Amino acid sequence: MLNNHSRPKRILIVDDEPTLVFFLKQGLQEAELLCHVDGTSSSEEALTKLTYNRYDLLITDLKMPAISGFTLVEVARSLYPGISVIVMTAFGSHEVQNEAAQLNVDGYLTKPFPTATLRDTATKILLAKDHHQLVSEERLSSSLEKAPKRGLERGGRDI
Fold it and tell me: CATH for 9-146?
């Protein structure tokens, strides 16, 4: 389960197979991740969703008609540099893995895979994201506490 005090995470699943989107979405919703899960079987619709909604995690197939998963990842990262990404493919190869690594994806899954594998990978990524955010907030808070307290001076006196 993800951190209670953080806002609910948003996940977008994109695959040109509607049945797979349905089952992956259902599997993540049943995982009690405190997430809102959207799904689409259209890469064009995914672009629209990414444009109008902020997602924490993009889960995308790589080989799709119209817009490839790699292009979708690049667009998502240009809109939201902090978005985490899991790529899925039935056509895994060293070339594909290298390209995914160059895009700095957070997870790489070769189809077919158990829904539990996606759930565990997504949970790990979102927990790490929560932890990173918490550490950043603690550092900022600590820095602000250590900063010298200064009043506005006027004529040598604080006002």
Answer: 3.40.50.2300
